[in-house]
């Protein structure tokens, strides 16, 4: 994708430096309502994310890198859930739709953070959890790139975290949105790479 002259005024970085001990993997909204038949708001084709995400998670857990699931969750019975002013109801607390898909279930050592808005940092304890884990770098993956993933990435950057996004582990609502979001992330908020490159860097750095 050809960049604009404004955004291209950037400093290029590489993944030569990646410390598994101070890095966490954030898994955003890999939930039944978004990925499985019968879900309230299914992202078609998102099953392609599962194999690279499984490989990256396996490498992270082997390296002792914390994994944090950041899950959309909406309480039933509220007078007004403002997210539902714009979106159909989804991921209602306690329902099948709000559960992580079977292929990516958290382990007992993983952390789970529930969010009620698009960003995983907004009015949650995600930032506190990462600080208590002594994390300075986050690898963000999940759905969808141009909404919850991007909102979480913005807030991570604003809070001083280094952000890495494996492009084959995120999916947007369309090709245009995917390309635009990844371009903006790479030029302003973090590093965009691939799961293979991230796994390679995690394997070689002790």
In words, what does this structure look like?
The protein is of the alpha/beta class. The protein has a single domain (21-204), classed as Rossmann fold (3-Layer(aba) Sandwich). The protein is 31% helix and 17% strand. It contains six helices and seven strands. Strands 1, 2, 3, 4, 5, 6 and 7 form a seven-stranded parallel β-sheet that branches. Helix 2 (50-63) packs parallel to helix 6 and helix 4 (145-158) packs parallel to helix 5.
Number of structural units classed as domains: 1
> What's the story with the biggest beta sheet?
7 strands, parallel
Low-confidence stretches: none
The fourth-level CATH homologous superfamily is Isochorismatase-like
Radius of gyration: 16 Å
The H/E string reads EHHEEHEHEEHEH
The residue fraction in helices comes out at: 25-40%
Number of helices: 6
Tell me the distance between the termini: 35 Å
CATH class bucket = Alpha Beta
Characterize the quaternary organization of these chains. single chain
Count the E strands.
7
Mean pLDDT: 92
Task: Return the CATH architecture.
Answer: 3-Layer(aba) Sandwich
Structural class per helix/strand content? alpha/beta
The proportion of strand residues reads 15-25%
The shape, in one word, is globular
In the CATH hierarchy, the third-tier topology is known as Rossmann fold
Spell out the blueprint of helices and strands.
Layout: E1 23-28, H1 32-35, H2 50-63, E2 67-72, E3 111-115, H3 126-132, E4 137-143, H4 145-158, E5 162-166, E6 170-171, H5 175-189, E7 191-193, H6 195-204
Parallel strand pairs: 1-2, 1-4, 2-3, 4-5, 4-6, 5-7
Helix pairs in contact: 2-6, 4-5
């Amino acid at each position: 994708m050809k960049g604009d002259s404004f955004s291209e005024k950037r400093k290029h970085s590489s993944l030569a430096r990646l410390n598994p001990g101070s890095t966490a993997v954030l898994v955003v909204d890999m939930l039944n309502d978004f990925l499985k038949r019968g879900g309230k708001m299914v992202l078609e084709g998102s099953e392609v994310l599962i194999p690279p995400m499984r490989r990256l998670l396996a490498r992270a857990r082997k390296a002792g890198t914390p994994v944090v699931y950041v899950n959309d969750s909406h309480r039933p019975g509220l007078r007004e859930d403002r997210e539902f002013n714009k979106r159909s109801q989804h991921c209602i607390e306690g329902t099948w739709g709000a559960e992580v898909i079977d292929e990516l279930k958290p382990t007992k050592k993983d952390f789970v953070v529930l969010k009620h808005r698009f960003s995983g940092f907004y009015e949650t304890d995600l930032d506190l959890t990462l600080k208590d884990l002594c994390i300075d770098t986050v690898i963000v993956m999940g759905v969808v790139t141009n909404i919850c993933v991007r909102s979480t990435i913005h807030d991570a950057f604003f809070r001083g975290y280094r952000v890495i996004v494996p492009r084959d582990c995120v999916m947007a609502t369309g090709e245009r949105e995917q390309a635009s979001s990844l371009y903006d992330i790479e030029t302003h908020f973090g590093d965009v790479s691939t799961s293979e490159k991230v796994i390679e860097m995690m394997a070689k750095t002790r």
